[in-house]
Design goal:
The protein is of the alpha/beta class. Helix content is 35%, strand content 24%. The chain has a 6-stranded mixed sheet with strand order 5-6-7-3-8-9, sandwiched between helices. The longest helix has 16 residues, at 161-176. Bound molecules: adenosine-5'-triphosphate and magnesium ion.
């Protein structure tokens, strides 16, 4: 969607750092995101993507820095969801809605089942769902408190191509209605197609923030996005 850069940011992250002893998992990362903006975080294994998202979600305490929003205003869809496999889809949603102290629980649960296309699976045991449907439950839980900002860690990694389409359509719809969506991915083609802006993280450092086209331009024309991304990392010593 068209993102108005003059709008007040929906999310500001200021000099966030996470150190594990000598290891700097995240080093003074700052960025902000506008309402309705879709932001992709890309970078090699161990770059600090998950760590950064966990900090922004409020599920991990940073060593330093600040996040503009309290955790209850940030929805979080971790890569490994903590779902109860013996409970049904609906029971899982109710349980998480209670844990998150969501007001008007039944209405919110019904709305999330509808929004994520799970209404006809409401009574199914989560442990018996396909990966794609489990991912929908995961996303529904992240959205229970109807947060203005939603974070997803590698949301498409276990999905088949058709389910990926469904996921990105859904994410696009959320963004169009004003939700800021920040996600990590190793599928750089998806970052190019389904993000308004890309953040490149490597060894805990934020190396780039801009559009996919701008990233290609920094390494010179004539490369596709994936090749440009690899060349960019190489130029920066990664
Ligand atoms: N609990 C921990 N204790 C020590 N080091 C950790 C811990 N969690 C993460 N790290 C380290 O922090 C760095 C960043 O890890 P992180 O999982 O955030 O990377 P990532 O970009 O998400 O990688 P991937 O693409 O493989 O998911 C890595 O070097 C990792 O080993
Ligand atoms: Mg990760």
């Amino acid at each position: 969607m068209a993102v108005t850069t003059t709008a007040a940011p929906a999310l500001s992250v200021d000099r966030v750092a996470k150190h594990y002893g000598e290891r700097r998992a995240v080093q003074d990362v700052s960025f902000s995101a506008a309402p309705g903006e879709r932001l992709a975080i890309i970078g090699p294994n161990g770059a600090g993507k998950t760590t950064l998202l966990q900090i922004v979600a409020g599920s991990l305490a940073p060593t330093g820095g600040t996040v503009s929003r309290p955790p209850r205003e940030v929805g979080w869809v971790p890569q490994q969801p903590a779902l109860y496999s013996k409970l049904s889809v609906e029971e899982n949603l109710r349980l998480f809605a209670r844990l998150e102290k969501v007001a008007d629980r039944e209405a919110v649960v019904a709305r999330m089942l509808e929004q994520t296309g799970l209404a006809d699976r409401a009574g199914d045991e989560v442990g018996r769902l396909s990966g794609g449907n489990r991912q929908r439950v995961n996303i529904a839980i992240g959205l229970l408190s109807e947060p203005p900002v939603l974070l997803l860690d590698e949301p498409s990694s276990s999905l088949d191509p058709r389910q990926r389409e469904v996921l990105w359509d859904f994410v696009g719809g959320l963004a169009e209605r004003g939700t800021t969506v920040v996600y990590s991915t190793h599928n750089v083609g998806e970052a190019e197609r389904y993000a308004d802006r890309v953040l490149v993280l490597a060894d805990g450092e934020l190396l780039f923030s801009g559009t996919a086209t701008e990233l290609v331009a920094t390494v010179g024309p004539g490369r596709d996005f994936e090749a440009a991304f690899v060349a960019f990392l190489h130029e920066r010593g990664h």
